[in-house]
Amino acid sequence: MTEPRPTVRSAAAATGLTGAQAIIRTLEALGVDVIFGIPGGTILPTYDPLYSSSIRHILVRHEQGAGHAATGYAASSGRVGVCLATSGPGATNLITALADANIDSVPLLAITGQVGAKAIGTDAFQEADIVGATMPLTKHSFLVKEASQIAAAISAAYHIAHTGRPGPVLVDITKSAQNELTDWAWPAKMELPGYNPVTKPRAKQVELAAAALRQAKRPVILAGGGIIRAGAGRDLVRLADQSGAPVVITLMSVGSIPDDHPANLGMGGMHGTVPAVAALQQADVILAIGSRFDDRLTGQLDSFAPGAKIIHADIDPAEIGKNVEVSIPIVGDAALVLADLNQQVAAWETKPAYTNWWKHLNDLRERYPAGYAQPSDGRLAPQLVIERLSALTAPDAIFVAGVGQHQMWAQQFLDISGGRRLLNSGGLGTMGYAVPAAMGAQVANPDRQVWAVDGDGCFQMTGHELVTCALNNIPVKVALINNSSLGMVRQWQTLFYGQRYSNTDLHTGDDTAMIPDFVKLAEAYGCAALRCTEARQIDEVIQQAGVITDRPVLIDFQVSRDAQVWPMIAGGASNNTIEYARGLAPTFERDEF
User: Fold this and answer.
1) Among residues 36, 64, 175, 449, which one is catalytic?
2) What Å distances lie between residue 574 and 65, 188, 283, 370, 582, CA to CA?
3) Confidence of residue 593 (pLDDT cuts 50, 70, 90)
4) pLDDT digits (tens, 9 = 90+) for 21-41
């Protein structure tokens, strides 16, 4: 594994601590440097020792914001993100962020207060069974009723969160346990029977995979988000270079191989590139590493990659064979799998040329390049905004996308050359992710520019966290792609519902009245704010935002509501039905080989 590892302090002990003090001591010993949270009645005992702790606490405006901020912190740094909330509604407000981190494999530690142990089950004020509620949506959930259990539970949760397949873990601690006195010792003794994640792949399976790749005529390396989580991008590039095989990425693996690498065909799936989708459909061998084969990638399962032998490597054995039939399963960490594969491929006496395969794929690249139509309504082209944003920001800038059309345009038109540079809510598709996740990414990377690429619909769900940014000197920047509508839903209404725009107009870009006026709103939040309505202004406002470092910045880019995301495959349809643009559907003929 090449991802950052926690800093753990050496042995220590203390007597006569409260459970609340033990919580903070344990987090300090684990090397936690920042917590995102909101105090409340049942977690209040823990906020008292936090007051004098070395750990920085960032007071968010909503618990969902705390969870997404911890996710942004973790996803951009590889470290465990930590969030804190009270019981009842405080804890339930974390659920969306926990579910989001779970499906996208982000290491998170959530600590919640709970009513006193004797009050559990009585429907006490602000009581909720958060352990039961989150068990299906986390890697694990703990309930702690005694102060003596605190150090071990938090240590175990932290360990589980960042080992094996990363994910969120919740520790729910009763108020009575926080108030009890206990002896605290470090390191805490963890008891995790049955938890032994496999990281080292079996040599025989790797040999079989390398042999299948060597014998293939139409191979594809499918790079999933597990490569990013494992910090294995360089190993992926080496495999592509050594084997000569093309690479298709998923949304969660953007940056695992540079966008301009000649082997990178782009993203597969619903809004993938034509060459990437065609490559998967026509492959005879697919080597998938750290990918879940989710429905956005595969489309209609029955018609996905009909002629391909599937090699599936993943750290989570439950993912292998879950959605597609697998010929060669490999359980292991992506970095270790790639290292072993590279060793095997390096021993090949000759490297396959795949001449006809590459000729076909390069022809598709030439015929179906990335592009977009200019709007006819005089508004900005959102794709142009994102192209210029990419061109005018630092090469190590971090981008955090919301969910919807702007998310797909960000993937298509940002130039991403390294891992952990484009953060997404991939599996859950959580509107409202971008601003708080950008806040967390900025806290984890204070010396880098962090841009949230958000939509006007998403922004209105969690944009109030700009107040948190302003008050805590977190200078995130927001490129608001404002099309005055729920854009992706509107696109589907245009294509599949006869242009019946039921409840998708947000009125945020109307000429007569903008509700809200995002410039005024951002200024009220303590941010700098700019508005861009003409193409000639785009570079100027991005450059203005770039030099503002003492507060957050929002740019209201007023774009065309009729701009659409292409290519596209309709939900549930076969990947063979991909349209490059409306009415232009490429055909995939297998007899070309």
Assistant:
1) 175
2) 37, 52, 15, 21, 16
3) very low
4) 999 999 999 999 999 999 999
